[in-house]
C-alpha cells in the first residue's frame, strides 16, 4: 500500500487477511467515441533497472490514460501490470493481483504493483485531473486536501457523510502516520441520522482489487479492513449515489452503467428506450420488452406487467414514496399509468409513435404527453390540461418537478425548443434536430434542459446558461438528464453509436447502443 517516488528504494507493504475480492465480469461491447486528452509522461529516471515497469510508452498504458472511460482499455491496462480486472465502479477498474511490476502514475510517481494508492491516485487523475503526489495510503486524503484546497473530513464528524467520488484514507494510528490503506467511495446511502452504508473500491486487499460495503452509524464509518481510523478528502460531487444510466445495447438487451456496469439479461423491443429512477438506495427501470409488454426491474424485483404497449414507444418511470409509477402509451393508443397508484387507462388518446414522461410532484405525479391532436398535454394531480402549444410530429415532451410544481420541455411544431410550466412559457429560438425530443431536470430551484440541435450537436439551456457542448449525437436520438440537486448529468448516444455522458461523471463508456434508441439517467 506504499507509494513510491522516482529514484526511491523499492519497498513492499501490505496488510494481511483483509477481505476477498469481488470479481466483476468484463464487457463485450467496446465502441470508441473519442479521445480524452491526457498528457504523456516521460523521462522517469531512477527506477531500478531489474524491476519490470509499466508506464508511458507501453501501448496499453497509453491507451488507458488516453481514454480511461473506455472499458475496452481496462483489461489490457491491468494485464500490462501483470494482473486482470477484479472489480470496477465509477468507470474505474481495480486490478489484481498486486504483483511486483512498477506501475507508473500521471505525475511521475510509481507504486510497486497495483497498490491501494495506485487506484486512488489514478481515480483522482481521471476524475479530477489531479496528478500524483507522494503519499502512503494513510496520507492520501490529507495530502490531496492540502494540495487542492478540498475539505478533509475526519470520521465521525456530525452531519457529514462520505460521498461518491470522495477518496478515503485508513490508519491504525490516530495521526495517520503509518502505511494504512486508501480507496474510493462508489456508493453512499446514508440517512439524515447518519446511518446507512458506503461502498469502497480499492486495490491490494488480500493482494488484489476489491469492491466492498461497510456500515455507517451515527455519522461514523465502521472499521474498514480492521483499520480503526479513517478520514476522507471531499473529491466527489456530494451526491449520495452515482448517476446510473440505462440503455438498450446493440444486442437488444437492457444494460445499465454507473456504479456497476452490466447486462441485465432482458430483451427489449427494437427502436425503444428504457427509463430509470432512483428508488431508495437503488434504482427502478421500466422498458418495453421484446414481447411488446411493459416490464420493470430493479429495487422492486423484475415484473412482467402483461400490459401491451404501442409499437415504437417507450415508458417513463418515477419514484413515488417508497414505490414507483410508470406512464406509457398502451397498444390502444391511450395514455396509461401503472404502479403505486394502481393501473389506469386515462382514456386520453396520444399521438402515434410518441411516449409520455412522468414526474413525482408532491405526494402524487404529473404526466406530460403529445395528444392525438398534436398538442402538448398534461394529466395527473393538477387535472387534465391542453396547453394550446403545438408539438412537432413524432416527438415527445419531458417533465421535471421544480419548486413544488413542474417544468416541461418539448420540440414545438416550428422545430424550436420550448419550455413551459413553473417558469412560464418560453420559445428559446434554438432549432432542434427533426425527430428528437429534449430532456429536462431540476437543478436547485431552477431547471436544465438538454437537446440535440439541428446541427447534430448536444446543447443545453437553463440554470447553467446556454451551451453548445460540441459533442456529436447519433441521428434520431435524444439526450437524458439526471441530477443530484446541485449538478446535472447528461447521457446520450454519440454519433459513433456509443454511450457517452457529461456532467457529474463525464466519460465515453465504450458501450455500443442500439441504433435509434436513447439512454435514461438517474441520480
What does this protein structure show overall?
- The protein has about 525 residues and is mainly beta.
- A 7-stranded antiparallel beta sheet has the order 6-12-7-8-9-10-11, with helices on one face. Strands 15-14-13-40 form a 4-stranded antiparallel beta sheet, with no helix packed on it. Strands 16-17-18-19 form a 4-stranded antiparallel beta sheet, with no helix packed on it.
- The chain has 2 domains: about 180 residues, endopeptidase domain like (from Nostoc punctiforme) (endopeptidase fold (from Nostoc punctiforme)), CATH 3.90.1720.10; about 280 residues, Fucose-specific lectin (Neuraminidase, 6 Propeller), CATH 2.120.10.
- Helices cover about 5% and strands about 45% of the residues.
Please describe the structure with a list of short key phrases separated by commas or semicolons:
523 residues, mainly beta, endopeptidase fold (from Nostoc punctiforme), Neuraminidase, 2 domains, four-stranded antiparallel beta sheet, 7% helix, elongated, disordered N terminus
Considering DSSP H and I runs of 4 or more, what fraction of the residues is helical?
under 10%
Instruction: Determine and state the CATH class of the largest domain.
Output: Mainly Beta
Percent in strands: 35-45%
Level-2 CATH architecture of the largest domain: 6 Propeller
Q: Count every helix, treating DSSP H or I runs of 4 or more residues as helices.
A: 4
How many runs of DSSP E, i.e. beta strands?
Answer: 40
The end-to-end distance, rounded to whole angstroms, is 32 Å
- What class would the helix/strand composition place it in? mainly beta
Strand order of the largest sheet: 6-12-7-8-9-10-11
Number of domains: 2
The averaged pLDDT comes out at: 86
Which blocks of ≥5 consecutive residues have pLDDT under 50? 1-50
* CATH superfamily membership of the largest domain: Fucose-specific lectin
CATH topology (fold) name of the largest domain: Neuraminidase
Computed CA radius of gyration, to the nearest angstrom? 24 Å
Amino acid at each position: 500500500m506504499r507509494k513510491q517516488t522516482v529514484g526511491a528504494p523499492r519497498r513492499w507493504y501490505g496488510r494481511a487477511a483483509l477481505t476477498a475480492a469481488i470479481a466483476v465480469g468484463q464487457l463485450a461491447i467496446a465502441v470508441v467515441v473519442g479521445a480524452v486528452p491526457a498528457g504523456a509522461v516521460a523521462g522517469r529516471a531512477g527506477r531500478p533497472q531489474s524491476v519490470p515497469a509499466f508506464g508511458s510508452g507501453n501501448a496499453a498504458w497509453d491507451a488507458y490514460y488516453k481514454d480511461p472511460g473506455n472499458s475496452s482499455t481496462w483489461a489490457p491496462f491491468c494485464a500490462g501490470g501483470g494482473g486482470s480486472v477484479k472489480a470496477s465502479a465509477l468507470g474505474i477498474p481495480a486490478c489484481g493481483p498486486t504483483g511486483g511490476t512498477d506501475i507508473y502514475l500521471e505525475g511521475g510517481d510509481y507504486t510497486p504493483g497495483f497498490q491501494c494508492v495506485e487506484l486512488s491516485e489514478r481515480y483522482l487523475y481521471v476524475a479530477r485531473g489531479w496528478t500524483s503526489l507522494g503519499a502512503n495510503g494513510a496520507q492520501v486524503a490529507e495530502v490531496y486536501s492540502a494540495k487542492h484546497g478540498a475539505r478533509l473530513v475526519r470520521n465521525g464528524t456530525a452531519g457529514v457523510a462520505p460521498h461518491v467520488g470522495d477518496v478515503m484514507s485508513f490508519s491504525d494510528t490516530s495521526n495517520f502516520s503509518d502505511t494504512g490503506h486508501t480507496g474510493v467511495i462508489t456508493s453512499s446511502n446514508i440517512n439524515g441520522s447518519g446511518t446507512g452504508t458506503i461502498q469502497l473500491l480499492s486495490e491490494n486487499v488480500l493482494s488484489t482489487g476489491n469492491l466492498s460495503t461497510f456500515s455507517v452509524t451515527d455519522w461514523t464509518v465502521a472499521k474498514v479492513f480492521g483499520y480503526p481510523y479513517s478520514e476522507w478528502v471531499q473529491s466527489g460531487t456530494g451526491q449520495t449515489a452515482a448517476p446510473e444510466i440505462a440503455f438498450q445495447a446493440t444486442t437488444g438487451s437492457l444494460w445499465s452503467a454507473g456504479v456497476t456496469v452490466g447486462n441485465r439479461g432482458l430483451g427489449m423491443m427494437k427502436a425503444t428506450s428504457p427509463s430509470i429512477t432512483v428508488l431508495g438506495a437503488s434504482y427502478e427501470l421500466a422498458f418495453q420488452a421484446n414481447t411488446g409488454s411493459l416490464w420493470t426491474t430493479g429495487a422492486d424485483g423484475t415484473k412482467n406487467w402483461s400490459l401491451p404497449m404501442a409499437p415504437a414507444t417507450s415508458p417513463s418511470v418515477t419514484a413515488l414514496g417508497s414505490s414507483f409509477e410508470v406512464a406509457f402509451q398502451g397498444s390502444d393508443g391511450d395514455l396509461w399509468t401503472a404502479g403505486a397508484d394502481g393501473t389506469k387507462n386515462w382514456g386520453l388518446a396520444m399521438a402515434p409513435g410518441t411516449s409520455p414522461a412522468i414526474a413525482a410532484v408532491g405526494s402524487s405525479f404529473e404526466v406530460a404527453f403529445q395528444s392525438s391532436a398534436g398538442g402538448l398535454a398534461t394529466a395527473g394531480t393538477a387535472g387534465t390540461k391542453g396547453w394550446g402549444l403545438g408539438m412537432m410530429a413524432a416527438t415527445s415532451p419531458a417533465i421535471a418537478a421544480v419548486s413544488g410544481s413542474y417544468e416541461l420541455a418539448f420540440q414545438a411544431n416550428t422545430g424550436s425548443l420550448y419550455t413551459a410550466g413553473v417558469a412560464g412559457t418560453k420559445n428559446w429560438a434554438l432549432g432542434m434536430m427533426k425527430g428528437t425530443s429534449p430532456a429536462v431536470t431540476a437543478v436547485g430551484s431552477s431547471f436544465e434542459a438538454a437537446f440535440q440541435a439541428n446541427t447534430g450537436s448536444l446543447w443545453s439551456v437553463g440554470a447553467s446558461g446556454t451551451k453548445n457542448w460540441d459533442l456529436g449525437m447519433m441521428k434520431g436520438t435524444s439526450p437524458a438528464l439526471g441530477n443530484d440537486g446541485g449538478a446535472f448529468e447528461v447521457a446520450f448516444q454519440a454519433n459513433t453509436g456509443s454511450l457517452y455522458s457529461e456532467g457529474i461523471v463525464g466519460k465515453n463508456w465504450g458501450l455500443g447502443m442500439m441504433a435509434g434508441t436513447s439512454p435514461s439517467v438517474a441520480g
